[in-house]
Design a protein that fits this description.
The complex is a heterodimer of chains A (115) and B (110). By secondary structure, chain A is an all-beta fold. In chain A, 0% of the residues lie in helices and 50% in strands. The chains are: A mainly beta (115), B mainly beta (110).
Chain lengths: 115, 110
């Protein structure tokens, strides 16, 4: 158990809809990162939030956005869903905004299917 | 940008050693990692090595790093059925995002 929980575990949406995925970080962790893992692929970095501000972004379009709250919970929002957005979305929390990533603790993910 | 490559499948008999290999392209990578993913679960960090190290051993796990060739390997001694999973090689620069390979699915034969 990493202490990082994600909800929901599974979700089905249709193309064009919007979705919000939620993550509850390990207690006291002030940094959260989101990754997308397509079937048969490794996780790809979407973005990171540190103290409620975006602190780095991968190669994802603006329709992927996030929020981090003072209680260190966070959300990943995806607008105008496309079929290729179908993937496992992983949240990872850590204590610092920088530094060795061995401190990353991953949740079990939300499996998103876009039909 | 950084690219991390690894073979997709490996089959090993129970009790034998498993060796999973990986190559990366960014010579400025500071940290090299091995993660494990079991079905329906997130990623579990198994071990990591700093780029100025050649080897790291942790119980049944041995990581070897050849920085010149940008080659990383993970050896699992006395492989057990519980080791069946997908193993991801990953790399990052200091304070930067982690780049993952596509994962090696380890299958244990009885």
């Amino acid at each position: 158990e990493t202490g990082v929980t994600q909800s929901p575990t599974h979700l089905i949406k249709t193309r064009g809809q919007q979705v919000t995925l939620r993550c509850s970080s390990q207690s006291g962790h002030n940094t959260v990162s989101w990754y997308q893992q397509a079937l048969g692929q490794g996780p790809q970095f979407i973005f990171q939030y540190y103290r409620e501000e975006e602190n780095g972004r991968g190669n994802f379009p603006p329709r992927f956005s996030g929020l981090q709250f003072p209680n260190y919970s966070s959300e990943l929002n995806v607008n105008a869903l496309e079929l290729d957005d179908s993937a496992l979305y992983l949240c990872a929390s850590s204590l610092e905004g920088r530094g060795p990533s061995e401190k990353l603790f991953f949740g079990s993910g939300t499996q998103l299917s876009v039909l | 940008g950084e690219d991390v490559e690894q073979s997709l499948f490996l089959s090993v008999r129970e009790g034998d050693s498993s060796v999973i290999n990986c190559t990366y392209t960014d010579s400025s990578s500071t940290y090299l990692y091995w993660y494990k993913q079991e079905p329906g679960a997130g990623l579990q960090l198994l071990t990591y090595i700093f780029s100025n190290m050649d080897m790291k051993q942790d119980q049944r796990l041995t990581v070897l790093l050849n920085k010149k060739d940008k080659h990383l390997s993970l050896r699992i001694a006395d492989t057990q059925t519980g080791d069946s999973a997908i193993y991801f090689c990953a790399a990052s620069r200091e304070g930067d995002k982690i780049i993952f390979g596509k994962g090696t699915r380890l299958h244990i034969l009885p």
